[in-house]
Amino acid sequence: MARAERDAPGAAAAGTVRLGDLVVNRMGFGAMRVCGPDVWGPPADRAAAHRVLRRAVALGVNFIDTADSYGPEVDETLIAEALHPYPKGLVIGTKGGLVRPTRRAWDCDGRPEHLRRALEGSLARLKLERIDLYQFHAPDPNVPFAESLGALSELQRAGKIRHLGVSNVSVHELATARRIAPIVSVQNEYNVGDRGSDDVLAACERHGIAFLPWFPLGAGQCLRRASLKRVAKRRGATPAQVALAWLLARSPVMLPIPGTGSIAHLEENVRAAALRLAPEEMAELQR
Ligand SMILES: NC(=O)c1ccc[n+]([C@@H]2O[C@H](COP(=O)([O-])OP(=O)(O)OC[C@H]3O[C@@H](n4cnc5c(N)ncnc54)[C@H](OP(=O)(O)O)[C@@H]3O)[C@@H](O)[C@H]2O)c1
Fold first, then answer.
1. 0.85 surpassed by pTM
2. Does 174 sit in the ligand 1 pocket, CB within 6 Å?
3. Ligand 1 in reach of 96 Cβ (< 6 A)
4. DSSP for residue 87
5. CA separation for the pair 24, 87 (Å, rounded)
6. Which of 49, 61, 173, 220 could cysteine-pair with 56, CB 3.0–4.6 Å?
7. Per-residue model confidence as pLDDT tens digits over 4-46
């Protein structure tokens, strides 16, 4: 490895955030994009997907986000193929509670019996005895939220889950979850162009809960914002780097998980860990 590459700032430049008793660098990796198109089936080039995952870890990323529904099952399998036995300190967060009967469908299934089965599947595919962070993917309108969380809390007491997180929740649902079990993370849609979860982020800050913004780049869409392009040009950065730097500066509990199937984009995104925005730049981006 060339010296310049070895010395380039990696994910650690973003500082760290706590997930319960675990501490991870505040630039994670969302692994959803290493599956096939539409997050359905295997990637065209399996070895390339492995290379992206290994490169993320080499760049200092020590939190990877996945879910049993990505692929489905493919994403977790790729992670184990690329990275098991896992390096010390690598935290894998997976999720359960959604099913994929067809390519386009993402259906909720928050029934306790489904969550118990889903967790066993994730443990087997990831080759783990215990999941470091298990996130309930989304509240199921047909199952009381407390019933789903109660089942996960039991699995945590049984030693199969180290820490619990929730995803796609309101402030009220987060409060309900916290009455049932300790919650260390929330994963909601959030980026510079979509701040609909500002209230949930504020609740996370109050309670010292990590906030994992999904679509941190608006799935690529928010990179077209004129203000992002302006600040990027002035700073000699890219719009994606500015979008990620905005998230990092927005809150100390923020743990971005940008997704990509490309090594070039991965490297670009991780370099954002070292980009610090001035208050005037933050204000300009938020207008
Ligand atoms: N909890 C939930 O309900 C939920 C929902 C969605 C996602 N997630 C999680 O959140 C993670 C992040 O979300 P996401 O991957 O959907 O969206 P994202 O990170 O906002 O954007 C990813 C998209 O942007 C492109 N991209 C990445 N880096 C780029 C760069 N530097 N320049 C230009 N384009 C770039 C990627 O294409 P290339 O592959 O070509 O780089 C991909 O199409 C996922 O991987 C997943 O782990 C969770």
1. yes
2. no
3. no
4. P
5. 13
6. 61
7. 455 566 999 999 999 999 999 999 999 999 999 999 999 999 9
